Amino acid sequence: MPAIKPISELRNYNTVLREVTADTPVFLTKNGHGRFAIVDIRAYERLHTELELMSALAEGEESVRKRGWVSMDSAIKKLGV
Predict the structure, then answer these.
(1) Rounded to an integer, what distance in angstroms lies between the CA atom of residue 40 and that of residue 25?
(2) For 47, how many CA atoms within 13 A lie in the half-sphere containing its CB?
(3) Which of 38, 47, 55, 58, by CA, is between 20 and 30 Å from 13?
(4) All domains of the chain, ordered by start, with CATH?
(5) Of 30, 24, 25, 23, which is closest to residue 9 (Cα–Cα)?
(6) Residue 18's CB: how many other CB atoms inside 10 A?
(7) What is the pLDDT of residues 11-49, one digit of tens each?
(8) Strand-strand pairing, 3-6 and 26-30
């Protein structure tokens, strides 16, 4: 279950930071609305890597739509394998 706290809880930031784990971010609200998320650095790096991968896959998908597929023989020849 996500931890949701008002931003005023940051007065005791050590308490808030202890609740952050790789699987559980802490969401901070301001005036009752979501405003910030505090995430574990490993979770952030994993998310960032996943977004880069998804972006590369989307580029490849777009390339296939525009240029079509490359045959296995052609790919092997281009890569010099």
Answers:
(1) 7
(2) 9
(3) 47
(4) 1-64 (3.40.1620.10)
(5) 30
(6) 10
(7) 999 999 999 998 999 999 999 999 999 999 999 999 999
(8) parallel
Contact at 8 Å (CB) between 38 and 25?
A: yes
Structure token digits, residue 59:
């580029």
Rounded to an integer, what distance in angstroms lies between the CA atom of residue 22 and that of residue 40?
5
Residue 26 burial by Cβ neighbours in a 10 Å radius (0-12, 13-18, 19+): buried
- Residue 2 main-chain phi, psi, to 5 deg: -70, 145
SS3 for 68?
coil
Among 23, 28, 48, 51, which residue's Cα sits nearest to residue 38?
28
Tell me what pLDDT residue 50 has: 98
pTM equals 0.69
